Amino acid sequence: MDIRPTADRLRETLFNVATAGNVGALEGTVWIDLFAGTGAVGIEALSRGAAKVYFVESSAAAAKVIRQNLKSLQVESGFEVVQSDALKALRRLEAEGVVADFVFLDPPYRMERAYREVLEFLGASKVVKAEGSVIAEHEKRVDPGEALGGLKTARKLVQGDAALRFYRRS
């Protein structure tokens, strides 16, 4: 499978920046974990108090792994596993009135075009709160774009070969 879980250290950095060091800052938030893979980021969000996480994964095998991981951790509520292409899932969630505080995307690195398409959609979409954050993990040598759609880079962090780019509405 084409799964590359977000490294523990990078995931810790993601949540430290997302919460600005404020313990409890994720309480009651809504997350969309796109290209969810094993679900590690969304599961971490739930463990830190997120009210709801939408795990979006196109691979049936990976979606099964997410469900197994949630079950093994005895997580029984506060999530939905959406087995779908990212853009189709985002359109569906938007039509259902879902509004997220955080959207995390980590497509397989070979899918460079997916970054641009998803970020442009999110920049124009109502699925992200006006004060929400879109966080993209990518290879440090790849630049998904400083500004896309209605999103502008607020912060970029590099660890090893990976980078996190935090977008906000411009």
Structure description:
The protein has 170 residues and is of the alpha/beta class. It has one domain (8-17, 26-169): Rossmann fold, CATH 3.40.50.150. The chain contains five helices and eight strands, in the order H-E-H-E-H-E-H-E-H-E-E-E-E. The chain has an eight-stranded mixed β-sheet.
Reported by name, the CATH topology is: Rossmann fold
Low-confidence parts lasting 5 or more residues at pLDDT below 50?
A: none
Shape: globular
End-to-end Cα distance: 36 Å
Name the average pLDDT: 89
- Examine the secondary-structure arrangement and name the CATH architecture: 3-Layer(aba) Sandwich
Order of helices and strands: HEHEHEHEHEEEE
Oligomer: single chain
Biggest β-sheet, characterized?
8 strands, mixed
Q: State the helical fraction.
A: 25-40%
Number of beta-strand segments: 8
Helical element count? 5
SSE blueprint:
Blueprint: H1 8-19, E1 30-34, H2 40-47, E2 52-57, H3 60-72, E3 79-83, H4 86-95, E4 100-105, H5 112-124, E5 128-139, E6 147-148, E7 151-159, E8 162-169
Parallel strand pairs: 1-2, 1-4, 2-3, 4-5
Antiparallel strand pairs: 5-8, 6-7, 7-8
